[in-house]
Specification:
This protein is α/β, with parallel strands linked by helices. Helix content is about 40%, strand content about 15%. The protein has two domains: about 200 residues, Rossmann fold; about 140 residues, Glycogen Phosphorylase B (Rossmann fold), CATH 3.40.50.
């Protein structure tokens, strides 16, 4: 159970932007979207905002003006040429080199790691609340430095415990790193923001119910983008399905490739997402080519929304999710969803998706055929199976969170 929490008004908030900055120039993942949503909302709040970024050369501290400049550059995807320091530090990542160059120009202060504590103490007011929403940069060094600011508090948004529960689907060393992160959360966080009751239960299972920090559950908000121009191809004006997410083993693209390779549904499959890791067989199958399967990485939100709006449905056979943004976003667009019966999807979406066990490819193939038969070429001709669905909103999320931080 969560602990009763007293509402507070922080004199300032310090948002860790390390994860978001590290993703400069790339299509944002679900975690990136959350960190961006916090940046966007906190800039609108009357409480002063600061930003903290770990770079290759040390730490940068941004004030509200610097945070606003960062957001504006992210929105415009307009980055300066990297300076000499940026080119030397990030020679293999020009987007990040340009981002760090811009951040240095807008920084309130900078410090080498050993001097992070004095920098924070010099510039942050007593009682500042530090927010980490991206699982990045929550190190003992940062925690020790934060404790040098009188009365500071720490809030962490926990997305999931997947690295511990499904280590076979992680990059080498990920489970060990996450175990250390979760230990630090349990020991040092004054508040843990859980994106679902499932995540809170998973945290309790790993930390022990008696060792839980104060917690609040706040579902992540959804702001469906206005559909833009859908990429065209052989699927145009034909039945097609979308699967959305990084191509990694946990997302279970292998199930869909098996269905399209062996059971040949009368529809196209559009795989929207970058290639990830530990997935050599899936990558080899995609490189060899499967009829009616198309890989479309790098699309922006408006393009994906346009594809979803005209699709026969979103396919989501994932083995595990912390929240599952793609099905929620699809449902918000009135797009049919076929998904694995994950507890978090039942919590957030209830009976809206069609559920099918992620190991039963014949059931998936049957459901896919049924959904393809209901396909209509124009969105307004499609069956509106989610009519009346109201997705979680960021306003509701922040209403639950901001009075506590």
């Amino acid at each position: 159970m969560g602990i009763t929490i007293t509402e507070i008004t922080a004199p300032a908030r310090l948002l860790d932007l390390t994860r978001l900055v590290s993703r400069a120039g790339r299509v944002r993942t679900g975690v990136d979207r959350v960190e961006y949503a916090y940046l966007d909302r906190l800039l609108q709040e009357p409480v002063p905002l600061f930003g903290l970024v770990r770079t290759s050369l040390g730490y940068l501290l941004l004030d509200g003006t610097g945070c606003a400049a960062l957001k504006a550059q992210m929105d415009a995807q307009d980055w300066p040429e990297a300076d000499l320091l940026g080119r030397l530090a990030r020679r293999r990542d020009p987007h990040r080199a340009g981002t760090e160059t811009a951040l240095r120009a807008n920084a309130l202060a900078r410090a080498i790691p050993a001097l992070l504590g004095p920098m924070l103490r010099r510039h942050l007011p007593a009682g500042t609340v530090y927010l980490n929403t991206g699982h990045s940069n929550f190190s003992e060094q940062v925690i020790t430095a934060l404790r040098r600011v009188e009365g500071s508090r720490i809030a962490v948004l926990l997305h999931d415990t997947i690295p511990l529960d499904w280590p076979q689907y992680q990059r080498a060393g990920s489970a060990q790193r996450f175990a250390g992160f979760l230990r630090r959360v349990g020991k040092h966080a004054d508040l843990v923001i859980c994106n679902s009751e499932v995540t809170r239960a998973d945290m309790a299972r790993h930390l022990g119910a008696d060792a839980l920090p104060e917690t609040v559950v706040a579902h992540l908000g959804i702001t469906p983008p206005a559909p833009g121009t859908a990429p065209e191809g052989p699927w145009t004006k034909a039945p097609y399905f979308v699967t959305l997410g990084t191509i990694e083993p946990r997302k279970n693209h292998a199930l869909l490739l098996d269905i399209w390779r062996e059971l040949t549904p009368a529809a196209h499959l559009l795989i929207c997402g970058a290639r990830g890791w530990n997935n050599a067989e899936v990558f080899a199958a995609l490189d060899a080519g499967i009829p009616n399967v198309h890989e479309l990485p790098g699309l922006d939100d408006a393009q994906i929304a346009a594809l979803l709006a005209r699709s026969a449905g979103l396919l989501f056979p994932s083995y595990a999710e912390g929240y599952g943004l793609p099905p929620v976003e699809a449902a918000a667009l009135d797009v049919p969803v076929l998904a694995a019966p994950l507890p978090v999807l039942r919590e957030v979406l209830g009976d809206i998706p069609i559920y099918a066990d992620e190991s039963d490819r014949y059931l998936w193939a049957s459901r896919i055929r049924q959904m393809a038969k209901g396909y209509r070429a124009q969105p307004d001709e499609a069956e509106n199976t989610q009519a009346g669905y109201l997705p979680p909103t960021w306003d509701a999320h922040f209403k639950a969170v901001l009075t506590l931080i």
